[in-house]
Write a structure and sequence with these properties.
Strand 8 (about 130) and strand 9 form a beta hairpin. The chain has two domains: about 5-70 and about 205-240, Pseudouridine synthase (2-Layer Sandwich), CATH 3.30.2350.10; about 70-205, Pseudouridine synthase. It has eight helices and 15 strands. The longest helix is centred in the N-terminal third of the chain and has 12 residues, at about 25-35. Strands 1, 2, 3, 4, 7, 10, 11, 12, 13, 14 and 15 form an eleven-stranded mixed beta sheet that branches. It is an alpha+beta fold.
Length: about 240
């Protein structure tokens, strides 16, 4: 028998995730604050990253794999001259090199090499599981294990501003692309190293961060009715698949 109440409370809530919150923090807050038993998300954002987090509620959780498979678009900042263990700003600095000799033209020459089909090795601080254990948990214990390369596609890598040693960009890519690894690889090719300084997810498939609600707004909501008024109902989700 179809549970009409559950159907009415099923859909997608677009959240603009702030820094320091993990994706699971957002899920747990919405679940606990509003008493919604089934809440999931469609693609993890690192704690330091911001932007679009797609939450699925109720019966919409069954569509999470399909929604998660969509292409993504990000805006980011790459800092040249500093390498870190995690390939982003959260990791321990492992090397520094002078960037004084670099020019914007050097960067613009190299970036197109990272558009198209690429092979990436997942970072040790990623959520990829090896023998059932996430790599980041092994990394916390100081373990480094061999990882198989993964095929990804970068549809577009567009530089929006160069103020060396920082490079601002937008990138459109397939699911599973590590933007931090793109930055690290570009730094390696330039001979100075690099890491991802900042990242913001703009789009996931047809979902846009412009339509997302902030955590401050969610905190101000009085109850479940506010969630239902803002979410995209289950009946409309096929428009986004």
């Amino acid at each position: 028998m179809i549970d009409q109440k559950e159907l009415q409370e099923s859909g997608v809530l677009l959240v603009d995730k702030p820094t320091e919150w993990t994706s699971h923090d957002v899920v747990n807050f919405v679940r606990g604050r509003f008493g919604i038993s089934k809440v999931g998300h469609c693609g993890t954002l690192d704690p330091a990253a911001t932007g679009l987090l797609v939450l699925v509620l109720g019966k919409a959780t069954r569509l999470s794999d399909r929604l998660m498979g969509h292409d993504k678009r990000y805006a980011g900042v790459m800092r040249l001259g500093i390498e870190t263990a995690s390939q982003d700003r959260e990791g321990e600095v492992t090397a520094t090199k002078d960037t004084a000799h670099l020019t914007p033209a050097d960067v613009e020459r190299v970036v197109p090499h990272y558009v198209g089909e690429l092979s990436q090795i997942p970072p040790m601080v990623s959520a990829v599981k090896i023998n059932g254990r996430p790599l980041y948990k092994l990394a916390r214990k100081g373990q480094v294990i061999e990882r198989a390369p993964r095929a990804v596609t970068v549809h577009e890598f567009r530089i929006t501003k160069i103020a060396l040693p920082d490079v601002e960009f937008e990138v459109a890519c397939t699911k599973g692309t590590y933007v931090r690894t793109l930055c690290a690889d570009i730094g390696t090719e330039l001979g100075v190293g690099a890491h991802l300084l900042a990242l913001r997810r703009l789009n996931s498939g047809k979902f846009d961060v412009k339509d997302a609600v902030t955590m401050d707004t969610i905190k101000s909501w009085a109850g479940r009715e506010d969630v239902l008024n803002r979410m995209i109902p289950l009946i409309r989700i096929p428009d986004y698949l």
